[in-house]
Amino acid sequence: QQQVKQSPQSLIVQKGGISIINCAYENTAFDYFPWYQQFPGKGPALLIAIRPDVSEKKEGRFTISFNKSAKQFSLHIMDSQPGDSATYFCAAFATGNQFYFGTGTSLTVIP
Amino acid sequence: DTGVSQDPRHKITKRGQNVTFRCDPISEHNRLYWYRQTLGQGPEFLTYFQNEAQLEKSRLLSDRFSAERPKGSFSTLEIQRTEQGDSAMYLCASSLGSSGTEAFFGQGTRLTVV
């Protein structure tokens, strides 16, 4: 059973546009929600993370929106750049447990 | 470089052979995870350690897989009698504390079983 559901599977955005990736979960014990960026042949790199006590977190062009009641969270990439082209994974974590990852979104930013 | 280090980066082995991978976590990180990732999929949990104690092991993990973390520092993952289905990227991550926040991944070991 997929603990974290991620959509879309792939996304194509024009340079300067906004990229939005969505994730949903069911386990209310999750208390930490990171996003990872992965380039081909590389390990996932921590991008930004949020805890459920806040509804939004912004770091540079990257923003996480969190809806605790809906058990959903999303990554927004503002002013998307070709260098942002990568696979993005959402994840969820419960204290004392393991990370559960979504299935990934392949983002392509067209110049 | 103070990040998570994995060795080797690539491994090609014949079916039936044993392989061992090494992970050196970020210094002072007491939690260490092993994940497996196949093409087009998200990382899949294998096992994790809190210091030298192996606290959880995936139920999907075959008995051919074993992991150790002696002295709570580096960790090794061994796969015995490799099968073609074991071909994947094996990822190691480490974090500080049992809350597991800010887990950092290594570059992974790409295993190909022929």
Written description of the protein model:
The complex is a heterodimer of chains A (111) and B (114). Chain A has 111 residues and is mainly beta. Chain A has no helices and eleven strands. Chain A has strands spanning 4-7, 10-14, 19-25, 33-38, 45-50, 56-59, 62-67, 72-77, 86-93, 99-101, 105-110. In chain A, the strands form two sheets. In chain A, strands 2, 4, 5, 9, 10 and 11 form a six-stranded mixed β-sheet that branches. The model of chain A has no long low-confidence stretch (mean pLDDT 95). With 114 residues, chain B is mainly β. Helices cover 0% and strands 49% of the residues of chain B. Chain B has strands at residues 5-7, 10-13, 19-24, 31-37, 44-50, 53-57, 65-68, 75-79, 88-95, 104-105, 109-113. In chain B, strands 2, 4, 5, 6, 9, 10 and 11 form a seven-stranded mixed β-sheet that branches. The termini of chain B are far apart. In chain B, 36% of the residues are buried. The mean pLDDT of chain B is 93. The A-B interface holds A 6, 32, 34, 36, 41-46, 49, 89, 93, 95-104 and B 4, 6, 33, 35, 40-45, 48, 56, 91, 93, 98-108, 110.
What is the topology?
The complex is a heterodimer of chains A (111) and B (114).
Chain A: E1 4-7, E2 10-14, E3 19-25, E4 33-38, E5 45-50, E6 56-59, E7 62-67, E8 72-77, E9 86-93, E10 99-101, E11 105-110
Parallel strand pairs in A: 2-11
Antiparallel strand pairs in A: 1-3, 3-8, 4-5, 4-9, 6-7, 7-8, 9-10, 9-11
Chain B: E1 5-7, E2 10-13, E3 19-24, E4 31-37, E5 44-50, E6 53-57, E7 65-68, E8 75-79, E9 88-95, E10 104-105, E11 109-113
Parallel strand pairs in B: 2-11
Antiparallel strand pairs in B: 1-3, 3-8, 4-5, 4-9, 5-6, 7-8, 9-10, 9-11
